[in-house]
């Protein structure tokens, strides 16, 4: 029994497909969404979403963070972008990492809640570069 | 009675006006389809976000230290009004309706003794509001200039509004925009953004919405979801407004084209009548000339 996977960005639906299992990069560790999973709302870190047919990974997409809603028959990923891992550009990852580090360097260190999104941005950019390198 | 030459010139000028208005109608129709497609494409994300927020709000709403984006600052002294209009005119009452709705809101709030600050999106609204409320305008945000609405624009505006809230520059934020009903009709609509007006769906909770687990905890997710939700709300308003603008322009240009057609008919009839009168007069002159000989 497959589940319906949807990856949507604010501007459009990026992907909609039935899969047997999908592994999403949760902020506190990877999670596998399978049929009859308990309903969950998960914050995502920058990382790879892996689509499974049977026990085989069929597709891998990089998401730069977002949210996922898991229900017994559905998995909806809210992300700004989803890029197939083999099309991920190392160059763009480097650019993002540089921008994120710059923003962090200029940020006000005393304002801790405001720092968190910046830290996330750096994590996501690093994951981008690593994923691009690993292919 | 205008001369034949004058009439010919006027017919010619109304004809070229009709050409322009009918071309503008075609362009608006094409842009409308595009804008509608984009508005539809944005729906799945917004709907999923609404579901998550509704689930979260149930668990967090009654807690003490709810984030300001959800619960407000606890005061309602300073109101921020974000009104979304287009950059271009010739769209019937599209922009004037928003201007009037904003003005009514400002008058009501100031009548209650509140401070009002304005953040107009789109040039037309900014022009309208700066006539009367120049000193209350925080900044004029440029609209999409008839091009596709980019999410980046809404993202930036949302971040700006969130930063203003964090800096204590306002207590309540209201969004005024044209809701797209159909091609013919757009309704000026007010939505309260801060504190967040959640859809009250207590009586229609689906079975799978009953008990979500959250990872990490509710507060962290809510802290991330709320700024994003603000951006999404602004984005949706901008999209609906963009579609509405094209719809309003299409309707306005359609009736302008029809009016021009009517004017041409009238002028042509006038022209023919004058021409006939001239011929008759000349004949009479010739005949009475011949009689006199």
Question: How would you portray this structure in words?
Answer:
The complex is a heterodimer of chains A (135) and B (293). Chain A is α+β, with helices and mostly antiparallel strands. Chain A has 2 helices and 8 strands, in the order ββββββββαα. In chain A, strands 1, 2, 3, 4, 5, 6, 7 and 8 form an 8-stranded mixed sheet that branches. In chain A, a hairpin with a 2-residue loop joins strand 3 and strand 4 (29-33). By secondary structure, chain B is of the alpha/beta class. Helices cover 61% and strands 12% of the residues of chain B. Chain B is built from 7 helices and 5 strands. Chain B has helices at residues 4-41, 43-60, 68-71, 94-111, 123-133, 151-166, 218-292, and strands spanning 78-84, 115-121, 172-180, 186-194, 213-215. In chain B, helix 2 crosses helix 7. Chain B is elongated. The two termini of chain B are 32 Å apart. Chain A binds chain B through residues 6, 8-13, 26-28, 31, 38-43, 67, 69, 71-72, 76, 78, 113, 117, and chain B through 38, 41-42, 44-46, 48-49, 51-52, 55-56, 151, 154, 208-216, 220-221, 223-225, 228, 231-232, 235.
Features of the shown structure:
heterodimer; A: 135 residues; alpha+beta; ATP Synthase, domain 1; 2 domains; 8-stranded mixed sheet; 47% strand; globular; B: 293 residues; alpha/beta; Pyruvate Kinase, Chain: A, domain 1; 5 strands; 61% helix; elongated
Percent of residues in beta strands of chain A? over 45%
User: What is the CATH-assigned architecture of chain B?
Assistant: 3-Layer(aba) Sandwich
Largest β sheet strand count, sense and barrel closure of chain B: 4 strands, mixed
CATH topology of chain B: Pyruvate Kinase, Chain: A, domain 1
Q: Spell the H/E element sequence of chain A.
A: EEEEEEEEHH
CATH architectural type of the largest domain in chain A:
Sandwich
CATH class of chain B: Alpha Beta
CATH superfamily of chain B: ATP synthase, F1 complex, gamma subunit
Helix fraction bin of chain B:
55-70%
Number of helices of chain B: 7
The CATH topology annotation of the largest domain in chain A reads as ATP Synthase, domain 1
Gyration radius of chain B (Cα, Å) is 28 Å
Q: How much strand content do the residues of chain B show?
A: 5-15%
Please report the total strand number of chain B as a whole number: 5
Q: How many structural domains are formed by the residues of chain A?
A: 2
Q: Name the average pLDDT of chain A.
A: 89
Order of helices and strands of chain B: HHHEHEHHEEEH
Overall geometric form of chain B: elongated
Low-confidence stretches of chain A: none
Silhouette of chain A: globular
């Amino acid at each position: 029994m497959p589940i319906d996977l949807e990856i949507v960005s604010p501007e459009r639906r990026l992907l909609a497909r039935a899969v047997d299992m999908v592994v999403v990069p949760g902020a506190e560790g990877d999670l596998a969404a399978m049929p009859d999973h308990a309903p969950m709302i998960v914050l995502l870190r920058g990382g790879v979403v892996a689509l499974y047919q049977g026990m085989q990974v069929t597709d891998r997409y990089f998401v730069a963070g977002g949210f996922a809603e898991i229900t017994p028959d559905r998995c909806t990923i809210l992300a700004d972008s989803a890029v197939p891992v083999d099309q991920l550009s190392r160059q763009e990852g480097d650019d993002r990492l540089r921008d994120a580090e710059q923003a962090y360097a200029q940020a006000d260190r005393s304002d801790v809640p405001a720092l968190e999104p910046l830290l996330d941005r750096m994590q996501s950019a690093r994951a981008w570069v690593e994923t691009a390198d690993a292919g | 009675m205008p001369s034949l030459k004058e009439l010919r010139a006027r017919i010619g000028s109304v004809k070229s006006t009709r050409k322009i208005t009918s071309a503008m109608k075609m362009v608006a129709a094409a842009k409308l389809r595009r804008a509608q497609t984009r508005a539809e494409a944005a729906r799945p994300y917004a709907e999923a976000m609404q579901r998550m927020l509704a689930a979260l709000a149930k668990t967090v709403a009654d807690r003490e230290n709810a984030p300001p984006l959800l619960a407000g600052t606890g005061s309602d002294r300073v109101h921020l009004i974000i009104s979304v209009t287009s950059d271009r005119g010739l769209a019937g009452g599209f922009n004037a309706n928003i201007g009037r709705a904003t003005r009514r809101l400002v008058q009501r709030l100031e009548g209650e003794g509140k401070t009002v600050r304005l953040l107009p999106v789109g040039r037309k609204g900014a022009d309208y509001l700066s006539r009367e409320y120049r000193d209350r305008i925080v900044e004029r945000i440029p609209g999409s200039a008839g091009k596709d609405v980019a999410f980046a624009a809404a993202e930036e505006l949302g971040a700006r509004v969130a930063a203003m809230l964090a800096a204590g520059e306002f207590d309540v934020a209201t969004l005024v925009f044209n809701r797209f009903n159909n091609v013919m009709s757009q309704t000026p609509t007010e939505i309260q953004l801060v504190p967040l007006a959640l859809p009250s769906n207590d009586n229609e909770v689906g079975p799978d919405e009953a008990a979500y687990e959250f990872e990490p905890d509710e507060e962290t997710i809510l802290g991330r979801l709320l700024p994003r939700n603000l951006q999404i709300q602004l984005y949706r308003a901008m999209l609906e407004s963009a579609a509405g603008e094209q719809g309003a322009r299409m309707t306005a240009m359609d009736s302008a084209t029809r009016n021009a057609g009517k004017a041409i008919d009238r002028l042509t009839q006038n022209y023919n009548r004058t021409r006939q009168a001239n011929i008759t007069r000349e004949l009479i002159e010739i005949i009475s000339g011949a009689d006199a000989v």
